[in-house]
Every structure is written in C-alpha cells, then in structure tokens.
Amino acid sequence: MAPRTGSDPYLATPETAVVAFAHVTRSAPEPLVIGVTEYVDIPEWRISRLRAKIDTGARTSSLHVENIRELGTGRVRFDVRLSRSQSDRRVTVEARVARRGHVRPSNGELEARIFVAVRVRIGPVEREIELSLVDRGRMIFRMLIGRRALAHAFLVDPARRYVLHKPTRKPAAAKAAPAKAAPSKAAPSKAAPSKAPAPQRRRDRPRAC
C-alpha cells in the first residue's frame, strides 16, 4: 500500500509513522504538523491525553510532578498530577534516573533537576524522550515538550492549537424553559340582578268640595 501524504494531516499509516527508540530514529517522509498545544500519551505510566505546551524555545522537555522520592537504587518515585483543578487525579510512577543536569528556566536561574527517560506518543508518533521532573504547579500546562523531543519529526504551526486531537468539551446543560403560569380560570362574576325601580305612587290632587 502506498503511503499517504499531502492532504492527510496525521500521516497516520504504519509506513509514515515516526518511531524512535533511544538513539535510533526512523523519520517520516514529511514532518507532522502540530500546534502550540497538543495532547500527549505516556502508555508506560497509564497516562493519556495530558495537555502539553509545545515550546520550540526550550531545549529539553519537562513534566510537573509532586512528592519526588529517590529510592537509593538509581530509581525515583513521584506523583504525576493529571488535572490542575482536581488534585485527586494523579498517578504514582517509579522510573530509572537517566541523568542529572541543570536547566535554565524562564526566570534565568539554573536549576538542578532529575531526568527520566520514557516513551511518549504525540498523535501517531512514538519516541523515547527525556523529561526533567519539576514543579510546574503555577503553570497552565502540566507538560512542556522541547526541541529535542520534536527534532526531525514535527513542524509547529504557532497559529494553531490541538491539531491532532480536539479538546473534549463537556455538553452544555440544557436550560430549562421558564414555566409559564397557567391562566387562572376565574369563575365569571355574576352580576347582581338589577332591582327594578319601585313604582312611584301617584298622588291625587285634592278635589274641591
């Protein structure tokens, strides 16, 4: 079967999907066009549809985590919070420490971070990337995808969002129509019977004697 190109925005056939493992990458005939925000899956951690910011100004990728605990055997355990508004939606993950490094965030100060390697899925593209574990609690997006994770696989359209998967919108609650007051059936008022005017007595004029 010939690979589909051009009009297919997903390039979602097995022949054209981009799959990367560690240091070996097989590139698609054309880079996949994505927006500045997309959904990302991390199957190994049972995480799906995690909103991520696509940031070509950042070299590395990062993930918001809480309760980081080093296990002393080259592994680390942490909680991934899945929702900004619902604090109970989280998963606990244990992963091998890939390396330790320094990252200069937007505030300009170097930060020491732990990096883990995990395979992620963006649309039809699967590849193993490094994620730095950091507190992004004040940020809108739980995840940031940097240049290293995007290289040779994606083109970013800064004017678009969620090109691969549209956000799921909650159905709007139907507004109940205001109840109309039933017209009151008032009993027709009975008009009081009109009294006939009393007959006037005729006074006889006195007769002359």
Helical proportion? under 10%
Oligomer: single chain
> How many beta-strand segments?
12
CATH class identity of the domain at 33-156: Mainly Beta
Protein architecture, described:
The protein is mostly beta strands and 209 residues long. It has a domain at 33-156: Acid Proteases (Cathepsin D, subunit A, domain 1), CATH 2.40.70.10. 2% of the residues lie in helices and 39% in strands. It is built from one helix and twelve strands. The protein has a five-stranded mixed β-barrel. It is elongated and about 125 Å long. It starts with 18 loop residues before the first strand and ends in a 53-residue tail after the last strand. Mean pLDDT is 77; it is low at 1-27.
Short characterization:
The chain has 209 residues and is an all-beta fold. It has one helix at 147-150, and strands at 19-21, 24-26, 32-34, 37-42, 47-54, 61-70, 75-81, 90-103, 111-122, 125-134, 143-145, 154-156.
Chart the SSEs and their pairings.
Blueprint: E1 19-21, E2 24-26, E3 32-34, E4 37-42, E5 47-54, E6 61-70, E7 75-81, E8 90-103, E9 111-122, E10 125-134, E11 143-145, H1 147-150, E12 154-156
Parallel strand pairs: 1-10, 3-12, 5-11, 6-10
Antiparallel strand pairs: 1-2, 4-5, 6-7, 6-11, 7-8, 8-9, 9-10
Give the tags:
single chain; 209 residues; mainly beta; Cathepsin D, subunit A, domain 1; 5-stranded mixed beta barrel; two-stranded parallel sheet; 1 helix; 2% helix; elongated; disordered N terminus
